[in-house]
Amino acid sequence: MSLVTPLHFNTVQLNLYRGSSPREINIPFLKRLRLKYILSLTPEPLDETMTAFCKENDIKMKHIKCNDKPPKDKTKKVKRKKKTVPIEYDTVIECVAFLVDRRNYPIYMHCHNGELITSLVVACLRKFSYWSTVSILNEFLIYNSSINVHERSFIEHFNLEVDIQGLKPKDKVPWVSGQFITKTSKSKNKQKDITKAEVITTVSNNIPNALPKLKFHSI
């Protein structure tokens, strides 16, 4: 049995894979990954064939709508250097909140062709592991022939604080840096007269403003 990977397939981190929209020919290969989730960053969810494959193999599907398809009207073609970024930071934040939870793994993440949108999300994700800008952009260029000023600015200016609710520290992926994580102690709910241990894990203020921050809340 031949195994055919999706286009631009690669490993981002342990049990986190990236590539293009999976097709029927990729099913034997995807079975070997023993996936728990397929994360689709596409205009539409997976097609009927791939949906059936997921149901048969107990793979959950998460779709975050992104418009990464080229325009149908080729007469309105925009030069590469003038193209704007096809996603917003809200999309990246939703992806990050999902990807830092190791309970969702193994994951296959894809956009239409496995290039621009997936690369933008991965580039922003790398900042939580404190990769250098040079390393992030070099990885981006492996999957894209070039990077324009809008895409570079999108990556470099991603320095938001991402709030993660309901995730215990032990359930976060290990490649998210923990050196800036501190813990606070107990809090008391006076209105209900109930004392509960609320562990709030936050990122220290020592992180430079140029870097994004993760803020974990777990009870």
From TrEMBL:
Organism: Maudiozyma barnettii
Domain Tyrosine-protein phosphatase: 8-167
UniProt cross-references to InterPro entries, sorted A to Z: Prot-tyrosine_phosphatase-like, Siw14-like, TYR_PHOSPHATASE_DUAL_dom
Protein name: Similar to Saccharomyces cerevisiae YDR067C OCA6 Cytoplasmic protein required for replication of Brome mosaic virus in Saccharomyces cerevisiae
PANTHER family assigned to the protein according to its UniProt record, in alphabetical order: TYROSINE-PROTEIN PHOSPHATASE, TYROSINE-PROTEIN PHOSPHATASE OCA6-RELATED
Domain of life: Eukaryota
GO MF: phosphatase activity
